[in-house]
Amino acid sequence: MPVSAGQDPSVVTVLHDGDTPPGLESRTDGTRLRLASTADELAAALPGSDVLLTWDFTSDAVRQVWSAELTGDLRWVHTASAGVDRVAFPELLASPVTLTNSRGVFDRPMAEFVLGAVVAFAKDTARSLALQREHTWQHRETETVAGKVVTVVGSGPIGHAIAHLLDAVGTTVRLVGRRAADGVHAFDELPGLLPDTDYLVLAAPLTDATRGMLHAGTIARLPERARVVNVGRGPLIVQDDLVEALRGGRIAGAALDVFEVEPLPADSPLWAMENVLISPHMSGDVVGWKDMLVELFVDNLTRYRDGRELRNVVDKERGYVSSSGGQA
């Protein structure tokens, strides 16, 4: 259903971190923009705004200031991220405000990132770089990628993009979603898929069902050769359990782009582990990604002002976009 009909002009509040959406003002003719970078500024800007763009999708400011008094005019919240966990708090979910996300922008970049992690593990790239720094010539044998079994948790567009690329290099990919569908295993089938998994890729949204899904018990079902790749959300993993498994050789390695606490604290044992690849929540951030985010928002803003259906409307009960394009 359309959010409304004929919202012209609109008042859009943009929550940012000092890095504002590139070119947004020039592409939103007839729209009044209010910029806020702190919770106090957001509280001052929200009254009278009918649209909120959370450009800074790592901020908790929306949750901090949300109240009926400040958000009474708000009709639509859009987050510049695929995940909505920062804005999917009970008060917003219970409100009539429509929530949309930036699904579609990150699919291919994140799939390429996962493919890169799989290849890096198979070809022992981290060790090669360490030996290069030491000026050490040490011949080794490496693994093939073809024939490996990859279990991807998250069967939305990102999961499907990951499966497409990994299938192209000869792996056997099994997608896991909320429920069974054509070519997709149900989430409750996951324990039975783990014992022969070479790479476990987490690309699921953070929901009550997925929070802490990888813990000591599920790790114990993985073979010792398994590697974990997390490009979803940090809290999908019980991090202390993963650290212990890596220390004890219970699994072979992990490529982690997201963490329970971000930035990853300097004293985290993960930093010093030779079998861990760490990246700072950047798996989907390729050259031009901010322009793509703006393009998506502007398209939705045009739809909103015309009273048309918005793209990427989040199902508030499920916590992700559940319309066409595959389950999350």
UniProtKB/TrEMBL annotation:
GO MF, one example: oxidoreductase activity, acting on the CH-OH group of donors, NAD or NADP as acceptor
Chain residue ranges for the region called Disordered: 1-28
Record keyword Oxidoreductase present: yes
Residue ranges occupied by any D-isomer specific 2-hydroxyacid dehydrogenase catalytic domain in the UniProt entry: 34-314
Signal sequence coordinates: none
Pfam families: 2-Hacid_dh, 2-Hacid_dh_C
Keywords: NAD, Oxidoreductase
Domain D-isomer specific 2-hydroxyacid dehydrogenase NAD-binding: start-end pairs: 116-283
Similarity comment text for this entry: Belongs to the D-isomer specific 2-hydroxyacid dehydrogenase family.
Protein name: Phosphoglycerate dehydrogenase
Organism annotation: Pseudonocardia ammonioxydans
